[in-house]
Amino acid sequence: MNRHGLDEMQIRIKERIGNQTFVMLLALLLLDVALHGYGIRWVSYPANVMILLTLICGIYVVRLIGGNAFVGPGEKRQKPLTTVALTVLTALVVAASLNILGIRGGSSDHMRLDSASGLILCIVPLGALLAALTALVVRRVQDRD
């Protein structure tokens, strides 16, 4: 057995979950296109795809962790708090500097996000972070008992 990677069963589980997630993403994108064809627009164009991708990626990671196919059997526990904190800090500095310099994304009107899209794009990742932190706290409390 490979001590640093996934074993055979974990690889099969990961591939199965990946295939199912890809089909789910395809179905949701086609449903979004069909709704758009019928005149139902739940969010403007670039945001709807980003929201669907964020949601599906979150489902994929949660299912991998739930299926015990995220890390291999020989992986030691790492504490990536410093890396995560530096990444978030760097992202905030870049976003603030771009805002100060007045550089905006999207050059045409149809590529800009409306306020509801921006709000949803903030809520979805924050909800995922809150769920992950809650799961971490619950796991630590259960491990302590």
Give short descriptive properties of this protein.
4 helices; mainly alpha; about 140 residues
List the helices and strands and how they pair.
Blueprint: H1 8-37, H2 45-66, H3 81-101, H4 115-144
Helix pairs in contact: 1-2, 2-4
Question: How would you concisely characterize the structure shown here?
Answer:
The chain has 145 residues and is mainly alpha-helical. The chain is built from 4 helices and no strands.
Q: Beta-strand percentage?
A: under 5%
Helix/strand class? mainly alpha
Oligomer: single chain
Count of structural domains:
1
Give the overall shape, derived from the CA principal axes.
globular
Number of strands: 0
Tally of helical segments: 4
Q: What is the terminal-to-terminal distance? A: 32 Å
Report the average pLDDT across residues: 77
For the report, how would you describe the main beta sheet?
Answer: none
Contiguous uncertain segments of 5+ residues? none
Please explain how this structure is put together:
The protein has 145 residues and is mostly helical. It has one domain. It is 71% helix and 0% strand. The chain is built from four helices and no strands. Helix 1 packs antiparallel against helix 2. The chain is globular, with a radius of gyration of 19 Å. The mean pLDDT is 77.
